[in-house]
Design a protein that fits this description.
The complex is a heterodimer. Chain A is α+β, with helices and mostly antiparallel strands. Chain A has one domain (6-90): Arc Repressor Mutant, subunit A (Orthogonal Bundle). Chain A has 4 helices and 3 strands. Chain A has a 3-stranded antiparallel sheet. By secondary structure, chain B is mostly helical. Chain B has 7 helices and no strands. Chain B is elongated and about 80 Å long. Chain B has one domain (2-207). The chains are: A alpha+beta, B mainly alpha. Chain A binds chain B through residues 1-4, 6-8, 19-20, 23-35, 39-40, 67-68, 72-74, 89, 92-93, 95-96, 98, and chain B through 1-3, 6-8, 10-12, 14-15, 17-18, 21-26, 97, 99-102, 105-107.
């Protein structure tokens, strides 16, 4: 994102990969790490770093389990994350379509 | 604070990306490949067996067979249909586990509903027709309703299921309105040929 970030936009969400994660989770109840990686076309490491940042901010919950002895990681948006995303969308729309006097 | 023109364009692009990702996340992506091919081959085999008994492309000729052969034909097609559905479900479950995809999410639920209701309707009408001793139009009815299910379910997925659905609907309409005495061959073409072609297409694209 090469321009100055407007103050109204949540800097936690306002990053390409994190925005992609939050957008995808807003549409699906939960998604696996594999699904997100393939959907957003990012590397495991990149997705892992940004997922952790979102988890630390309380926007995303990450659950790890074993299915048939294979690890499976699933992500879901928390209530705080859902509200933050809705606020981000509203702020984005108000910047794009400002009220004209 | 208002965004400058350059910022506005960039922010519009963000909104567009958000919409695209949300649509992608809502899609159902587990399309059948091997199950479709296996099901198609089973239909072709059942068609060959049915023709071997009736020597006709008109399924109404089954009613002229001795009762035990009529039962055999009925059991054959029920087995092919049920077996195909079970195989598709088992392979979809396996693929879902492999990819870590949930089959309990909204997209999968809606696909099941969109496919399940037309199949239920077709089953009910079929039983009603058979109860009155009428076999005609049953294959065309199944092609039409199955096609409607595919097209509706395809709204939650990519284009190929919708194309397949349209093909089934067109063939079903032809079977009912244009060539009702060729419904066995149209069954082979649609449930056999279209499924094999669709499964092959999905498999080829998956590997690409």
């Amino acid at each position: 994102m090469s321009f100055i970030v407007p103050d109204q936009l949540d800097p936690v969400i306002h990053e390409r990969v994190r925005l992609g994660i939050v957008s995808a989770l807003a549409a699906a109840a939960e998604l696996s790490f594999t699904e997100l990686r393939e959907m957003l076309k990012v590397t495991d490491g990149n997705l892992s770093v940004h997922s952790r940042l979102l988890e630390e901010a309380g926007y995303v919950s990450i659950a790890k389990a074993f299915v048939e002895r294979r690890p499976r990681t699933t992500l879901a948006l928390t209530q705080k994350g859902r509200m933050a995303f809705q606020g981000y969308i509203s702020a984005l729309e108000s910047l794009v379509k400002p009220q004209r006097k | 604070m208002e965004a400058s023109m350059g910022q506005e364009a960039a922010l519009e692009a963000h909104l567009k990306r958000i919409r695209e990702i949300m649509e992608l996340a809502s899609e159902f992506k587990l399309l059948p490949d091997r199950a479709a091919i296996a099901g198609g081959i089973a239909v072709l085999a059942a068609t060959a067996l049915t023709w071997g008994l009736t020597r006709s492309g008109d399924v109404r000729q089954v009613l002229w067979l001795p009762p035990e052969r009529q039962l055999f034909v009925a059991g054959l097609w029920v087995t092919v249909a049920a077996g195909s559905i079970l195989l598709h479900y088992a392979l979809t479950l396996r693929e879902a586990y492999r990819l870590g995809v949930s089959l309990q999410g909204r997209p999968a639920q809606l696909v099941r509903l969109n496919m399940g209701l037309p199949i239920l309707a077709a089953s009910i009408v079929t039983l009603g027709l058979l109860k009155h001793g009428y076999l005609g139009f049953i294959p065309g009815l199944w092609m039409l309703l199955y096609g409607i299910g595919l097209y509706s379910a395809g709204q939650l997925s990519s284009a190929p299921p919708r194309v397949l659905g349209l093909a089934f609907m067109a063939t079903g309409a032809a079977s009912i309105l244009v060539v009702p005495d060729m419904d066995l061959w149209l069954t082979a073409l649609s449930f056999g040929g279209y499924h094999i072609a669709f499964g092959g297409y999905v498999l080829a694209n998956r590997k690409a």
